[in-house]
Each structure stands twice: as structure tokens, then as C-alpha cells.
Design a protein that fits this description.
about 325 residues, globular, mainly alpha
Amino acid sequence: MKEYIKIIRPINLLFILLILILFRYAFVVPKFYEVYDFIPALNTFEYILLILITLLTAASGYVINDIYDSDIDTINKPNKVIIEKTISVDNAYNFYKLLCLVATILTITLAVLSKDLKLATLPIIILVALNFYAQYFKKQFFIGNFIIAIFAAFVLLLPALYESSTFNDDQIITQIQSGIFAAGLCYAIFAFLTTLLREIVKGMQDIEGDLQYGCKSVPIKLGIIKTKIINTFIILITIIYCISFALYFQNIKINYVVKFVYILLISPLVILLIINWWAKSKKQYAIYSNAIKIYMLIGICTMFYFIYTSGTGSYIFVQYLSFLNNILN
């Protein structure tokens, strides 16, 4: 049983669980909304279903990925290989099918309860897409990295889409819904950029095994120097993105948040930029990858601030997008 738990990456699943819980309490159900009689599109039970669907979908992706990567992983991560060592491929595949089955049943249940058939099909589409990713796209140039980054973004976009998909003629309720979507979109962009960076770095870390099995990862196709230039570009985009938040909070005179943005979000990116050019060995790339993961956790934990501000989060993100639009225009 312990080996089955290992292959679904429990730490990663806890990270996803934290994201979804924080998003719910920061932007969807603050006490302040009760003043406006705002009722979330998904009640507590339905949101728990959405969390379970997301966790099962992610877990199934980890299992199918390990099944198709068992040969490569014997070179890249010999100490972490489970499939074929302690779990047979057949048993792993049966476990994968069980995860998919339960996720599909819960998705259908959520579709019936929420009466939102369009959004309910997304987890099933992602289940199928993760299978195709593991079989075909992972070994292709860049597209595999891009797909995983999109999936990471959807962890935050999906609950935001549920809460903003229902029509309401009350202007204040509509503004709250817009704010929830804006918050989900902004955090999804952050998740996309940081996940894309980490996926490319993992390719640098796994280059030895990937080469032997015909993978066309970014570092294999372009070389390490060009890959580091791409990483630099992604980090610089993320820095600019974070600076835009610092400028916004400075504009609305919340200066202590400006300091936190520079200390917690921008300074670590400068450190990642240094690590990007310092790292040269597999061990150093592993440090680089773990540093990105820690940074992702820091970024997601900024939602605690919006829980603390109790209901202003949705307003802040709507105003941020308006502020950004004014700058760009």
C-alpha cells in the first residue's frame, strides 16, 4: 500500500489541496460577502467533490506518467523507481484505471449537482489529455512542458470558472464573480509561468536518461546554454509580472504589501536567475528545481493575505486588471 501512495506523489497532492482550500477561503467564501447575500456557485459538498476530482486527476497523471517513464526513470531516478520494481506494470495500470473511474464518477456527480455540464467535462478532457501526454507529448520538444503548465493553471482556473459562469443581474454580485475570476486568472498565470520553468529545469536534470530514449526535450534540442536563456526569459517575465503587482499596491497606498512583494516574490526570482546560470550538474539542477518548487509555495501562500483582508481580494484583483489595462493602453 505504501508504494501505491508514493507513486501518486502525496506531497504534490497536498500542495494542490492547499491551493484549492486557500482559494476558496480567500476569494469565494469570505464572511464579508454575506453582507451582499452572495451564494457561491458550488456549495461546500460540491467544492469537496471538485477538490477530490482534481486530486484524483493529478494522481492518475502521475501514475500513467510513471508507467510510460519506468525505463527512463531507471537512469534519471534509479532510487525512486517503483513500477516494475515493487509494483508490476499491470497492477500500476489497474490502479490508474481505478483512479480514472472514481474521478469520472465524481465528475458526473458534480455535473448533476451543479447543473453545469460544460465545465464538468473539463476534468474528463484533462484525464484523457494526461494519458496522451504520457504516451506521446512528453517526449516532444516543448509541447509537453507547455501542457503540464496549462494543467497547473487549470487547478486555479477551474474553481474560478465555476464561480463566474452563472449569470446574475445584481451588479455587486457580478462584481464579486468577476473578482473571483480575476483572482483565479492572476494566480493561474503565476502557476503557468513557474510550472513551465520547473518543467524545463527538470528536463535539464533528466537529460541523461532522456537522451537514451529519444526524448526531444528543450535542453536536448537546443543545448544547455540556449535553455538557460529561455529560463532567463521566463524568470524575467515573472519578475515583470510581480513588479506590476508592486506598482499596483503602491498606487493604492498599501506600502507594506509593496515591501512584501519585493521581499517574498521578486527577490527569490533574482536568486533563481543566479542559480539558473550557476547550475551545471545534475545535483545542481535538482537544487534549482526544488528552489522553484519552494518559490511556487511562497507564491501560493500569498493567498493567506487575502484571507486576512476578508473579502477585499476579489475587488483588489479586478482593480489590478483595470490598473494593468491603463498602463498598457
